Amino acid sequence: MTEGASVQPAASWWSAMSMETFWMRHGVSCVMKILQHFLCQTAMEIGEAICRGFTMGKSLDWPFECFKPNPVPIRFSFRGKNKNTDFNLLAAVYNVRGDFLRWEQLGLNNLQLCGETATRQAAAFSFGTAYQQSCDLSVAELMSTYSEPLFYDVFMDLGGEEERKLFPLPTLVNNLQYNGQFINQDACFLVDMLSGREKSTSSVPKVIRVATSIKIRFELVPDSKEGTVFPPLMSITYSDIPITDVSTQTVSATFAVQYEMNLNEFHIIMDIVLGVLGSLFLLNTLLRTIKWKRRFGSQIIDGETLMKFLLFAIGDLSNVFFFVTVGTAVYWLIFYKAQQTVTVVLPLPAQEERYKIFIGLAFAGKFLQELRLQVTVDLFFIDWERPRCSGGLWKEKPAPGTGEPKSDSPPVSIWRTYFVANEWNKIQTLRQISPTFQIIAVLFFLEVLGFSNYALSEPVSTAERSPQAFTPPYSMTLRYGLASILWLCLGLLQVIYFTLYERFVKNNIHQFVDLCSISNISVLLFSHPCFGYYIHGHSVHGHADTNMEEMSNNLKREAESMCGQRGLLPNTEVQTFQVSFTRYLRTQYERIQDLSNRRTGPLRSRDSSSANQFEQNTSVYNTMNHFLGSFIDHAYSEMDYIVKDKQLFETLLGVEPGEKSIFYNDEDFSFKDVLFYGNEATLLIFDTLFFCVVDLGAQSFVLAAVLTYVEQTIFSMIRQSLGRRNLINKTLVDNRFLI
Predict the structure, then answer these.
(1) What is the CA radius of gyration of the chain?
(2) Coiled-coil segments, which residues (predicted)?
(3) 323 burial level (CB within 10 Å; 0-12, 13-18, 19+)
(4) Alpha carbon distances (Å) from 130 to 107, 258, 348, 366
């Protein structure tokens, strides 16, 4: 019924309800309310704590009721032939003298002070749509529009074939109490201009009272599969506005409709999942710590061991929080949007605080894990090339004071080592996906195709929305679930695509190994003091310093199997290994490395100090190259090694350093674990969390994408800079030749 409807139809409809029917329908309810009020007051006098426990335990805070009423006999459904999403609220309107004026249907500028189109106001009464409208109202317009207050007694229309049934909505005034208890009002008003007038009703009021906040809240019946709810509660907050300047004063007003459900059972399930997954991941943390301890070559549990265990635990628990939060958000996204009969509604912002804490813990843990990505590995490029004379042989004699061979022929070119070092420096920040494409693709789906609309707090969403339609607020849970699952899915698709691309077209990691073979250079890495990786690059042709024609002939002979294979062992092709080193080998390596006191800056001056430093580094480089090359060639019986396949228990628990080093065949190129390439899962999860956290804080996918790109660039630059510095210090390569 509209604002302009005549009183007669409303009065005749009212009179059509006999006194007996009205008493049976509403009188009994009133008597029950009085009895409940009396029982509650009596219980409070006998044992105030008991009844207060009942009252405070209800999520809707129904005043003067110790028990929740029966559910509303209406079944809500979002889809199907029984679709029912509309609910009707009627208001009996009275004037200040208590005279009944008319019946009005809510949604026609009666309880909503903010002026909006009829289409947008009607969205407030579509079940499941979180509605909130706020505005600033002019005091002058309020005084001219609401010169006399009107009182509204609100009912929920339950329908009925023969007779319409109405249910009175309890009204809670948030800032009105009596003896410390909230008062259950039967009627409400929007603007009161009379109470603030002095002397006469025609004078200008000194104070006006405005309903600045009106909220209607529905609660879903627990464990209901039929889409039933408890009777809604209407809560109102009044504000007294002193009149100072009518022409410029404004008042802020809000009208909202909210839906909630009891999430205690859901939280219990989440806690169980967290406990189970947390236990499994902590077991993984223990295994990783044992493996790290064995690779470190120490059996003592010291402070460093405990710190490493803590860092591993932080990384693993952050994975638990990430998977649980993403799984929960995707659950709400799918089941809330796809449900037919209403069984779940979205969590309220207050109910999402626990969820935000889990997201924050996941982000903090991944941030620490991102910072500790390894950039301090020990590595060295072993150059197998030997000088050649015109007859294809070389003559060597001991170098003075070193005992190392020195050739009479021209020295071996260092350019191959520089070339391999530059390629290693390049692949340090190589990833399995394209981060830039990832950001552009996510933005394309969210903003261009309109996928962001699926995160709105409404049961049925479409990618395209009419500008005239009401746009509900975004749900934090849905927004996080949509952004995270979209980011992860696009990242996974990229990984699959580049895996196929690298398998059939181009693989940068494999090409680096091939480059080592062509350059006649091997790479030995120590990721831990007694564990590392080895890339066997000893050329099957014996030399790599040659011209184009000979290089082409060598590759042709290799393609036609006219020479040996590239593997470390004869007649094998395995070139990459995981290595468990002996403590004695590590000691000898560190002894030679300590001889170097290389400066990282360019040699700008040509004084004697710089010359001595350069000669010292050159001597250490030659000594290290000779030592590691001899080790690979089994020249030291006290530091010999064996080659074998890795067993399952060795993979899980690691291997303690023994009397001999062990080279484990590794066809998976595990040395990529010291690069960005081998830590793609960690990087992808961190980028996902960073994007989502920024978006949840700023509510802008575009800003989140821009800051994520900045974050990726900064971390890549830091990793590149630290990796370059480590490469210079450990391989003794002149930094002036690194591009």
Answers:
(1) 38
(2) none
(3) middle
(4) 15, 5, 10, 33
- C-alpha distances in Å from residue 693, one per residue of 373, 436, 699: 21, 19, 10
Contact indicator for 152, 189 with CB cutoff of 8 Å: yes
Q: How far is CA 397 from the centre of its chain?
A: 63
> pTM of the predicted model, to two decimals?
0.82
CA 214 to chain centre: 34
d(CA 641, CA 634): 7
pLDDT tens for 8-55 read 333 323 333 333 333 333 343 443 443 344 333 433 343 333 333 333
Query: CA 560, CA 543: separation in Å to the nearest integer?
Result: 19
pLDDT at residue 199 in the model: 75
Question: CA-CA distance, 155 to 105, in Å (whole number)?
Answer: 10
Q: What is the DSSP letter of 733?
A: -
Between the alpha carbon of residue 426 and those of residues 430, 436, 439, 675, the distances in Å are 7, 18, 22, 10
Pairing state of beta strands 661-665 and 641-644? parallel
The per-residue pLDDT for range 136-163, each reduced to its tens digit, is 989 888 888 888 888 999 999 887 767 7
Least Cα distance to 473 among 134, 116, 213, 705 occurs for: 134
Helical (H) or strand (E) element with 154: strand 151-159
User: Residue 387's Cα: distance from chain center in Å?
Assistant: 56
Token pair, residue 704, equals 């989140």
What DSSP character marks residue 660?
A: S
Q: Which two tokens stand for residue 57?
A: 């335990």
> What distance in Å separates the CA atoms of residue 448 and residue 470, rounded to the nearest whole number?
20
What pLDDT is recorded for position 256?
A: 92
Task: Supply φ then ψ for residue 132, to 5 degrees.
Answer: -150, 125
Write out the two tokens for 69: 């009423």
Measured N-to-C along each axis, helices 680-698 and 303-338 cross at an angle, to the nearest 10 degrees, of: 60
Is residue 292 a contact partner of residue 307, using CB atoms and an 8 Å limit? no
